[in-house]
Protein 1
Amino acid sequence: MDAKANGSMDTKSPVENGQIPDPANWGVADVVNYFKATGFEEQATAFQDQEIDGKSLLLMTRNDVLTGLSIKLGPALKIYEYHVKPLQTQHLKSTAS
């Protein structure tokens, strides 16, 4: 993963060495690129509009994703359950080590 001039990391590929990089260091563009790469191209713009960076992403609750991003319910549920929640769990495990 390469650092960009704006301080964000280049996350064109969301998986690195079989592991997703820690989102705590992601900028807004990295969060947007992650969701685009995972098939949520249309919904990724909501993260940009709300200026959600990696640290913000790790703080999001289920309710934040379902109601705060103006995303349709189906995709919002998938984004939270299959992406946000696992990223939060991975981050907690990596910081506890």
Protein 2
Amino acid sequence: MKALRRLLPPPRTALTSQVRRCSGTDSDSGEARLEELLKTRFPTASAVRVQDISGGCGSMYEVWVESSDFQGLSRVKQHRLITEALAEQIKDMHGLRISTSVPES
């Protein structure tokens, strides 16, 4: 039983308290800043959406971009364009989820 306890992750209470501590930050401003950067980089995008999925900390975001700029590119290249557009901001993030698509004709 002791060997099993060493293999298990620590209790989630530490994570919960971290989320609770940082939930007072203004995640809307971080979302708006990232959305503006993406709209500037992809001016013909038909949809750009950014959501803070870190519980309000601004440490993890999910972005959705639909743009004709992605036409003919692999998903990896599409995502690379997003990460290049947000290169400076990504340095301060824990993670980034990216979804991209090409508008239907």
Protein 3
Amino acid sequence: MIQGGEGGPPGSYGNYGYAGSGYNACEEENDRLTESLRSKVTAIKSLSIEIGHEVKHQNKLLAEMDSQFDSTTGFLGKTMGRLKILSRGSQTKLLCYMMLFSLFVFFVIYWIIKLR
């Protein structure tokens, strides 16, 4: 039976002649480093979960913005269509409406100034 080699019984001088205390010191350092690594992995895991929640929230906001932009695009498209129809009509009618509106605004301003 081998006494003092690698295959010796626990508590003997294994590991090439080092005492059991050196082995325990290595085990304690390994345990400390393992615990440190475990805490870092836990922190990274929680951070990645938070990032995932934030990404889901941002995707939801982007989807809402996309639908709002689509509705706005439809509204602007209809407005541009109406403007095209209006521009194809007679220009004299449009000019007459603009002149009447200008006269109305002029009289309202004149009346406000006169009442002071």
Protein 4
Amino acid sequence: MWTQRKRSVPPGPADIHFVWEKNGRALETCVPVQTHALPDGRAHALSWLQDTIRESTEYRCSVISSAGNKTSKVQVAVMRPEVAHQEKWSRELSAWRAVAGEHDRMMQSWRKAWESCSKDTL
């Protein structure tokens, strides 16, 4: 599963930097950051993370600067493919059972009609 999380920060001081964590551990990978310096010394910054995960994961992004810190977090839940597959199979099996049951009832009805026609001709 591929996930992308963006954090856009309103204009702030030029010493801003981001710290990304995955399940409570700081990420060592190079995380892209775009900054745009504003004329008054502040900066507009954007950081994002791309990751491939196989299990539910919590991401935390902290923005740190001399003006203060902010942290946001998100929980990405991964549904196990075999669970989703089993649920799909169960729905399909139920649908097939309903169709087979309807077919059986129709065949019984035809059988009764056929038998009644056979009795009338004797």
